[in-house]
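Work package 3, deliverable 3.1, input record:
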Amino acid sequence: MAEPLLQVDQVGKRFGGFVALDGINLAVAPGERLGLIGPNGSGKSTLVNCICGALHNESGSVRFDGQAIDGMAAHQRTILGLARSFQLPRPFHSLSVAENLHVPLLYAVRARFGSHLSAREINDHCIEYLRLVGLDAKAHKRPRDLTQVEMRKLELARAIAAEPKLLIADESMAGLSHSEVEDILKLLVRLNERGITIILIEHIMSAVMSFSQRLVVLVSGKKIADGDPAEVVRNPEVEKAYLG
Amino acid sequence: MRSWLFTLVCIAVGAITYAVMRGVHSEYLFVAGYVVLEFVVLATAWNILGGYCGYVNFGSAAFFALGAYTTIFFHKAYPLPIPLLIALSAVVSGIAGLGMGYLTLRLRGAFFSIATLALAVVLQTLVVNWDYVGGSRGAYVIRPQALSAFGLTIPYVEYLFLLMLALVVIAITTARLIERSRLGFGFATIRDDELAAEASGVPTLRLKLIATTLSGALMGMAGAPFPYYIGYLQPASAFGLEYAVNSIAMPMIGGTGSWIGPLVGALLLGTIQQVATVTISSAVNLLIVGLLLVAFVIIAPNGLVGFVTQRLRAREP
């Protein structure tokens, strides 16, 4: 395996007496499509928060693109090329759809070394990403005027606009219809084809199975399986975690 | 409109206002006008942190008083012209704003607001016990009756009014510049969702420190000429409740979304208060603010500007 883009070593996180993450190890290769699953409360979102800097891990270390990022603020990690979408869309309500995308372009992409974007270029990038997710016709609308699926697309588009090396999509398909799930999946595959490494956290197993090249399963803050998706779902421990 | 053009328009409007007021030949107009303009600066300064970033500062009076007491300190230690004192007050209050930011900006919501209130109490206690600036007894500043420069002589209160007019231009152009800049985008994301802002690469802590520094500096500037205006400064007047309440109420009533809101709110509320002061009593000023605030929270929660904008949007086909 090539040098991992993301390397998580023995990461642990507690909330008072509750152990949310218990020595998690994870390596993600550049260009990989990784599925991360687990029952509710298994620690998926906590792991994402520790990777992205919204929470700080108490033990272990996180390396991204060959650099230790423990203790680094979330915005610095985004500038490095690590972007996420949130489980529940968190748009900037006072800004238009297009302006929502201007934010990562202005702050993350411009701050990245060697990136000098003019206002025109920012606008062009913004239109390109909105077209990619099919929201270009709604560029001047406010997020409150969008439907549920459009809101999720905006959430993804904003993460993409940070022009990341690694995108973590946290339950981007929750509550969507079958055709809407297909739309988002196609979008994620297109992004991966552009060279973006993707970690997909999802409960919709059909989506995870069709998207992931590798599957990791968390249960009660521990990693219980890691490997080929078809093999992982047949793992007795995984079956027990899901079916009891 | 480009920023330099906007600044020129502001200066022109200021000049016309001054010319009209001179034409009325009433010194009281300048006395009352000074207070209204002072509130325009305070409201605009408050709005940079409270309106743009969503952090409600209850400690406006502390920054205003810091500006006023910086003037008192230098008046005793090394007398300087008021424009220089305004600049020094901006530096002192800006540094205090930065310090407050470092100490409190990891707090959110009501906890942040309570911390800013505590800052005002701490500063007031320090000033009350600092004899050099007058302590609890207060300090006198004897101002000249008139100011002569370039062959012109104007009453001192007119000079103070002109200074405050200049501060209004500075405050409004600063606020508008922020609104239309990358900084303004960053502030809006902090107000909307701080976690999402960080995830989008916005350095939220740094931006909040910029906001507290700018807001504090402008409030300090508003307070700097105050000792010359009032003549006798005591902690109770510099740290007065009306500064904290009006700084919040005026942008809320005018609208916190843009630079126009605090301007409209301060002009409206400030004028009503000045009229009430001469027709009824200054004691009703806070009552007026309270009643208007309640009315606006119910009828127009986005302030006057927000209310009008919504109406106009609703009319669009």
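The beta strands of chain B are 139-140, 146-149, 152-155, 232-233.
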